[in-house]
């Protein structure tokens, strides 16, 4: 279960349009993603400071740190007991679709169920 809904937020944030500001030092009038992919196209003085890496080396380093299993453990921010409680609370809500616009209301509903059950 993904309790943070980060993927959807990241997609939104990286592609949102930053309004144009004539006197701003940093680039504006485009999205963060466009600035990352083609900085020179966004602002004449921007530089592409990307660092190319060897993906084989990255994979070897990841495996040396424990691979996918350790990665999943590192990004699992709650313990199994809380996950079960929260999942049961979400089940009480009939597992609604979680979107950016509904996530806060669903979070509050889950918290209220958890508080009720632990009162």
Task: Put the structure in a nutshell.
The protein has helices at 6-15, 32-37, 39-42, 55-64, 67-74, 80-92, 103-117. It is an all-alpha fold and 119 residues long.
Verbal overview:
There is one protein chain. This protein is mostly helical and 119 residues long. The chain has 7 helices and no strands. Helices cover 55% and strands 0% of the residues. The chain is flat. It has 2 domains: 38 residues, no CATH class; 52 residues, no CATH class.
Indicate the topology.
Elements: H1 6-15, H2 32-37, H3 39-42, H4 55-64, H5 67-74, H6 80-92, H7 103-117
Q: Give the helix level as a range of percent.
A: 55-70%
Mean pLDDT: 85
**Globular, elongated, flat, extended or rod-shaped: what is the shape?**
flat
Order of helices and strands: HHHHHHH
Count of helical stretches = 7
What amount of the residues lies in strands? Answer: under 5%
Name the structural class: mainly alpha
Number of strands: 0
Distance between the termini: 25 Å
